[in-house]
Amino acid sequence: MHFKNSVLGKYLPELQLIDAPMAVLKLQKEMNDVKNVNDEAIEAVCDGVIDSEEQSIWQRYKKEILEMASACLTIWYGKEGA
Questions:
Q1: Is residue 44, in this structure, part of any structural domain at all?
Q2: Can you give the pLDDT at residue 2?
Q3: What 3 state SS string does 40-59 have?
Q4: What domain count does the chain have?
Q5: Is the distance from CB of 45 to CB of 59 less than 8 angstroms?
Q6: Model confidence band, residue 59 (pLDDT cutoffs 50, 70, 90)
Q7: Is residue 73 domain-resident?
Q8: What is the rounded distance in angstroms from the CA atom of residue 27 to the CA atom of residue 18?
Q9: β strands within 1-82, DSSP E
Q10: In a domain? residue 22
Q11: Is residue 82 domain-resident?
């Protein structure tokens, strides 16, 4: 996509141009992944400090959020129809 060639391109997640039904399923899966790690992430950050033992949880949470953002953008900019 042309967004990857922009100034902000290095910050944007990779997008898969897939049909709308598959894009919606992908988003639902990614939302579920975020939900699955959410409680651990809250526990890790609630004291305002992410210590060395909590780093892996925090990194996983950020990974899942980025994948969910990618799925959202795939719906927004993806193919219409089946």
A1: yes
A2: 55
A3: HHHHHHCCCCCCCCCHHHHH
A4: 1
A5: no
A6: very high
A7: yes
A8: 12
A9: none
A10: yes
A11: no
In this prediction, residue 56 has a pLDDT band, given cuts at 50, 70 and 90, of very high
Give pLDDT tens digits for 3-51.
Answer: 566 666 666 677 778 888 999 999 999 999 999 999 999 999 999 999 9
Compute the 3-state secondary structure of the chain and give helix, strand, coil in percent, each to the nearest 5: 70, 0, 30
pLDDT higher than 60, residue 62:
yes
Q: How far apart are CA 38 and CA 56, in angstroms?
A: 13
Measured CA to CA, the distance from residue 52 to residue 56 in angstroms comes to 8
Q: Distance (Å, rounded) from C-alpha 80 to C-alpha 45?
A: 39
Take residue 81 and report the two structure tokens written for it: 């129809």
**Structural domain harbouring 63:** 18-77
Task: State both tokens at 77.
Answer: 């900019």
